[in-house]
## 1
Amino acid sequence: MLHLLALMVAAGSFGIGAADLLDDRAAKAVLAKNCIRLGTSELLPIDFQTACRVLEQSELVQAVQEEFAQSVSGDGKVEFPIIENGDGTFHYTNEKQQRTNLAELYRKQTDPHSFDYIVWASGKRFFGDYDVVIHLQVVDAAPAGIVYSVTTHAYPHNWLTRFSARRIGVTKRYFKKKMRLISTIAREIGTGLCEKEAFRNAWLKPAQETTVPLAKDNTEPAPPMKL
C-alpha cells in the first residue's frame, strides 16, 4: 500500500494545473474564481502509450458513447446521447430537458509523462446557472500503470448558491456526486477502450521477419521466414 501511495505521489508531481494549460480566457477566468473544487485519483494497470492512443483518436466522443452502451449501460443504449455541434463543442439534454453545453478545451500529450483532457461544461440546474471545468489527467506510473485523476472546478453563478455550498453543502454534494459518477464511468469506459486498443495494436504489429541469405543450392535467396 505504501508503495502504491508513493507511486501516486511521484506521478502526481508531473501534473500541471488546468489553468496553466489553457489559452481560453473565459475558462481561465472561471478557474480563477472561488470554485467548488473536487478531485479523485487512482492507480490503474494500463499502459501509458495505449491510454494516449485512445485519448488521441479523432472520434473520441463517439467511441466513448459506443463503449458506454456496451460496457456500462444495462440496456445497450445511451440514455442522454451527446450531440456534436462542430468545432469541438457538444451538448446533451437530460430527462428534465435541461441542456448541458460542452466544449473541448485541451486534449493532447502534454509531456513525455502525462496526457491532459480538459472540458468546459455549462448549463442550468435547480440552483441556477453554472460553469464547470473538468480536468482529466493520465500520468505515466510505469511499471505499475497510470495514475488516472479527475478534477472538477464548479462555479455556480448565483452568489447565494455559492454561499450555501460552503455552509449547507447541498450544491457541493450535487457536484461531488456528479464528480464520482463521471470518474467511475470514465474509468470503466477508459479501461474498456484501452483493452481493445491494446488487443488491436498487438494484432496489427507486423510479424518479425528474418531472411535466410541463400537457398539450399546456394544460388537464390530463400523466402523470408516469419517468427
Note: The radius of gyration is 22 Å.
## 2
Amino acid sequence: MAEQGLTAKQVAETLEVSPQTLNNWFNRGLPARAIYQAALKLFVGQHWLTTGEPDPSGRSDPPVPPAADSNASLDGPFDVWDDDTPLENDEVYVPFLKEVELSAGSGRTVVEQSHKQRLRFGKMTLRRQNVQPSEAVCVTVSGNSMEPVLPNGSTVGVDQGSTSVIDGKMYALNHGGQLRVKILYRMPMGGLRLRSYNREEHPDEEYTAQQMMENELVVLGRVFWYSVLV
C-alpha cells in the first residue's frame, strides 16, 4: 500500500471486499482464496505476498491473467473450510434443497431444505447476480439429462426470488417431489416446455397449465450459478 500510495479504502474496493474484511486480513493474514486476486490486482508476486520473502525461483512478476481471448473468468482460488470455520464478513451460508421420502417404501418424496448441507457464497457474488442471500439455495443435479453442461452430481445455485420464466434460461423445478433442473420456455395459456441439453435421450416435455397442476410442477427459481467437477 505504501509503495503504491493506496489507502485501505482503495485496496478494499480494488479487492472487492468490505473494509472490515480487509482489516481482518491485516490482523490475521490473507486467506488462501484471496492471495491470487490480491497479487493480480496489486501487481505483486504471490510468494512475496504470502511469505514476505523473495520468490526462491527468482521470479518477481505478478501472476499472469487468463488469455485475452478466453471466455472464462477467474472467480477466485479454492479455500478449504468446514463447519467450524467462521464466515468472513462478506460471506453467507446457502442451504441445499433435497428430496426426502415421506414414508419407508412409499416412493413418495417431497422437496425440503437440508439442515446439514450448505455452501459459502460471497455477498458480492450474490449482489452481482441480483440475488438476495435469503432467496439463494443450492440443488444437486441428478442424472445425465443436462450433460455435457451439467454432469451428474453438479451443483447449481438457485434464486428462489426469480420464478418468472424467461425463455431459454435454466431453472430448478419441484416436479411432484422430484428436484429437476431444465431449460424452460413459455407456452400459450400458462404452459411450459422443459428442455434438456441431452435431447437425444431426453426429448422436450410440454405441460399445459392444467397438467402442471395435476403433476405438481412448480418453478423453484432461476439458476444463477453452477459448479462442475470433472
Note: The CA atoms of residues 195 and 203 lie 7 Å apart.
